[in-house]
Amino acid sequence: MVDIDVESLFNYAMKGQWGEALEAYNENPGVLEAKITEAEDTVLHIAVYLGQTCFVTNLLDKIHEEVSLNILYMQNSKGNTPLHLAAELGNVELCHDIAKRDPNLICGRNLEGESPLFLAAVHGNRDAFFCLHRHQQGHAEDDSLARKSNGDTILHSTIATEFFGLALQIIELYPNLVNSANQDGLTPLHILAGKPNCFKSSTRMELLQRIVYTCSFVDEFEETDDGRYDKAETTEHCPANYATCATFISLFKSIDAKILVRIVESTILKFEYLSCFIYAEQEHAKKARKEKKQPVIPPNWAATIRFLIHMMKILLVICGVVALIMHAGASWIGKIQRKKVKHVLAKQVMNELIQRTSSVNKYDYTNKRKGSINSSNDKEKGGIENNRRRRMSPILIAAKMGVTEMVEKILETNPVAIQDVDSDNKNVVLLAIENRQPNVYSLLNKKSFIKDSAFRQVDNQGNSALHLAATYRNHKPWRVPGAAMQMQWEYKWYKLVKDSMPPNFYERYNKSGNTAKQLFISTHERLAKEGGKWLTKTSESCSVVAALVATVAFTTSTTVPGGPDQNTGFPLFQGEPAFNLFAIASLVALCSSVTALVLFLSILTSRFQEKDFAMDLPRKLLLGLTTLFTSIASVLVSFCAGHYFIVEDELKIAVYPIYAATCLPVSFFALVQLPLYFDLSLAMIRKVPQRCYKVSSHELLQH
């Protein structure tokens, strides 16, 4: 009997037949404690998961209190109780209803050591979190419910999941969590330092995106009284008198293309129905004329209605296009605004964490120095201090990940942090240079007290900052495609670091007996070969085209349209605008094609040394491509100008579209090559390379 009821209960739960589930309970109360899924869920787990608030509330009210508590304490295969699921899904009503029956349910933990309060914070369910937080007050005096078994706290988790608004409120409610470390020795500030995508300095934006980003106004998150827990979190505010404008603008944001299309389509259907009605009335009017009766609707109304139908169809197309543009534009702008909100909140969390941990960091650093002095007297204590020293501090992670804001803030509040080193004895400067972080490097290079000491640091292998700048690793750090341009910016980075180093560091040897220049040549050998191959293939292809264009241009320049005058020897069409255009275009085509051919041949004969990739080879490639495109365009112009003389006057207007169509392939090809043009041009203009932030944080931390 029990097995049949459990099977029926499972079917009721899967089909959402909750009334039948209540009847099944009345017939056999034991079925509520049965685990009816492979995940060992009870019917209450499934009801909570599906958001059946009324069913859960009615069920718990009808059954005995002791039975209800037994059901609420039951766990599935993951150790989650119904309250865990309600907190994870953010169901505030169920969290309140379950927690008020027995506040000790908040103390329950699953197999991962997570409490319902922890799950609510992890999933960013702000209202559920504060609901459980209010219920736990008076029942738990410490912050143990805000931690899990591996030492992660709700502050660790909200920062890791980028719920920064909730993280700010957790800092106010649980100030002790700011300095708490997990089993890996990571504090919340360590976690935040490993998320460069949450900061503006590590976010790459195009020109238009930067303009929208700058014009977006976002206020910092402000703490209010305890009533804030029942309000929706917001980060954007405006003066009270702007409310009407904001409401009006919000109407446009809510416009959907489908809504506009449906409105216009319904209007068209009404007009078409009216047209059909008028057509029927016209037929009736014809009969009325024969019978000499007065028609109900004038006969000229049909043409007016048809005209309105056509106009509405045109309006339908226009509204559809406009709505799609507005929807796409609003979505794009909203994405940039959300990005700025995240940056503002992340920076605010960073400021709070650094401000609250600055005194602790100073104390720890002082203890480190004392421990290192007295290490000979107390080996155990020295070992502990050594482990603390070798653990990478937040400023080192920030320098490695390129979080310029955090590096600047930490140095501002705790300048002694510049002496932090990792297990390889690398400080902030060495890590920033090794991981190709131009923004962090520029910041450190501007501070005189850092240049006097930190730039002279060497790691355990005797590598200076110049050695690390000369060492190339597998991932591509620079925001340029192709091995040749990667090589170009690698040399620029090496030269930039070299210019900022003391002169005696140029020929400094590491423990392997290598100078920075030797390291650059050896580690960039493969990249230089790949870049040389790409330049060789490109130059060979382009030189063939340039030679063909030069041949055609030479033949064209020696051919005079219409021939010379037999008496004077001057061209017959001399002085005509088309003839002048032909003469200039053919000359430009010949000169530019020959120039392009010479430039590509000079690339082919290059020795492809490392320093050649910095300026010489990219400049030749840029000029070669420019002159090649110019020669092709000039050949087409000279052809069109020469062809103009052999076309009859009646057909001259008709050939203009053909001339335009002839130039389309060249224009399209030039448009496709624009990114390469921009990259080559910017690389020659910029002294500091642009970092690519598509490399994952995990990959950087592994290195």
UniProtKB/TrEMBL annotation:
Asked if the record carries the keyword Transcription, the reply is: no
Q: Which residues form the PGG domain?
A: 533-645
The UniProt transmembrane annotation reads 314-333, 542-561, 581-601, 621-646, 658-678
What is the protein's major site of localization? membrane
Stretches with biased composition (Basic and acidic residues):
377-387
Can you tell me which residues the record assigns to a coiled coil?
none
Matches recorded under SUPFAM superfamilies: Ankyrin repeat
Q: Where, subcellularly, is it found?
A: Cell membrane
Gene3D superfamilies referenced in this protein's UniProt entry, alphabetically = Ankyrin repeat-containing domain (1.25.40.20)
What are its GO cellular component terms?
plasma membrane
Among the Pfam families in the record, one is Ank_2
User: Which InterPro entries does the record associate with it?
Assistant: Ankyrin_rpt, Ankyrin_rpt-contain_sf, PGG_dom
Instruction: Give start and end residues of every ANK repeat.
Output: 78-94
User: Which parts of the sequence are annotated with region: Disordered?
Assistant: 366-387
What membrane topology is annotated for this entry? Peripheral membrane protein
The name on file for this protein is Ankyrin repeat-containing protein At3g12360 family
Origin organism is Cajanus cajan (Pigeon pea)
